[in-house]
């Protein structure tokens, strides 16, 4: 009897697999890790060989360095990051009262720098900003992505969804064209993953360094021959918000390694 | 001048003034193609020449060294390799050096490891760059002066999407 | 301070062969890449990596641009006496960065 049910279940799922090619079905959510070769997976899995850990190390050092006119370190207010930052990154982006908009973790770190430390903001993709963001996110490694349940974020998340599904560029492709409709297939020699941002900032072999989710989004926009948004653009934060909701429940991997 | 379209170098500007627009475009395109051939494309020594420089011309035998390289590489910027030579690694009988060479990168040399009896084992892992699909060779020099080699090849797939430069 | 990660076993038995791993943050700029301005990015690589054990060199690597960014090496050595294992990375300009670890041999 149990076998019969199982057969029926396989039949039903196979049927739905054919009729609903769109989107990622429940239970099919998979990290980009699963689409990599065993060699690249091994690179991420072992902290001694994962080059992203060099940015974690740098972030740990920067966390304790006093900065700005306030001459205060991150640790001066937040103490031991392994306790105070554990589980923080899984909620981001969150609603920022000051601007009335969502803010991502890198944005929060820079806001902290300018407001609390009274220092100059760190440049996008600078080693220091990536290192601090990687270090803070790393404190949540293994925890499920759990976006903030804040109704004020809803319109921004909706805009992120709209951007994800809008066709852009000379190739007239949306994010969804590849990552909802064709994940698991190949584009040239590369596997198309589901585009879950669970490992950012991550070490990309193509970059030969750690980079942010926004850098990856810019690469994708250039890939479809669209004019990319600037680093820090509100559209990017809205997209990050939608992507976090879409990845809900997947474990944080930072620092991940990707090809 | 018109009969000599493949004329490249700094005189291109003067050439443009002498010939017609279409002729110049064609000449210019050919010129660019020639100019854009990277210097190393003609300058680098072959795989065999590079190995000969390392061995000083001594014979290289097959065996006693093993090179592990993944056959299919997702990104040529970081290819994990492990090289292991068979040796008791004693004062009298050990591996002195292991060198890695490639066939098609801009430079043939990759890395040279210096080992000795204090190494315990002649096994080393590292990560290398492979510009394209090609052959990689490991050559081990033993303490008796003999050379042994192993070769492996990898297919390197290229990223599907183009990138901007930071 | 070097941005380097080294892995040395804390303890080992006399005569045991132990695995050492070392990685340093470095772009290993090949000199063959072209920057956004169309000009080649100048070469800047780690040229030599050496490991000493109580002052004696036990492993060395001569690097060329084909070694990946953030160079990583795993190798072995024989634990003979308690002491310091030191790592030195030397770049094209001759500047060095170091890291070290202690090993207790019983």
UniProtKB/TrEMBL annotation, chain A:
Keywords: Electron transport, Heme, Iron, Metal-binding, Periplasm, Signal, Transferase, Transport. Its cofactor is heme. It is found in: Periplasm. It comes from Phyllobacterium salinisoli. It is an enzyme of class 2 (transferase). It catalyses: L-cysteinyl-[SoxY protein] + thiosulfate + 2 Fe(III)-[cytochrome c] = S-sulfosulfanyl-L-cysteinyl-[SoxY protein] + 2 Fe(II)-[cytochrome c] + 2 H(+); S-sulfanyl-L-cysteinyl-[SoxY protein] + thiosulfate + 2 Fe(III)-[cytochrome c] = S-(2-sulfodisulfanyl)-L-cysteinyl-[SoxY protein] + 2 Fe(II)-[cytochrome c] + 2 H(+). The active site is at 220 (cysteine persulfide intermediate). Heterodimer of SoxA and SoxX. Substrate binds at residue 216. One of its GO terms (biological process) is sulfur oxidation. C-type diheme cytochrome, which is part of the SoxAX cytochrome complex involved in sulfur oxidation. The SoxAX complex catalyzes the formation of a heterodisulfide bond between the conserved cysteine residue on a sulfur carrier SoxYZ complex subunit SoxY and thiosulfate or other inorganic sulfur substrates. This leads to the liberation of two electrons, which may be transferred from the SoxAX complex to another cytochrome c that then channels them into the respiratory electron transport chain. Some electrons may be used for reductive CO(2) fixation. Heme c 1 binds at residues 74, 77-78, 112. Signal peptide: none annotated. It holds the Pfam family SoxA-TsdA_cyt-c. Heme c 2 binds at residues 175, 178-179, 220. This is SoxAX cytochrome complex subunit A. Its EC number is 2.8.5.2. Residues 155-247 form the Cytochrome c domain. Binds 2 heme groups per subunit. GO terms for cellular component: cytochrome complex; periplasmic space. Belongs to the SoxA family. One of its GO terms (molecular function) is metal ion binding.
From TrEMBL, chain C:
Pfam families: SoxZ. Residues 9-101 form the Sulphur oxidation protein SoxZ domain. Gene3D superfamilies: Immunoglobulins. InterPro entries: Ig-like_fold (IPR013783), Ig_E-set (IPR014756), SoxZ (IPR030995), SoxZ_dom (IPR014880). This is Thiosulfate oxidation carrier complex protein SoxZ. It comes from Phyllobacterium salinisoli. The lineage of its organism: Bacteria, Pseudomonadati, Pseudomonadota, Alphaproteobacteria, Hyphomicrobiales.
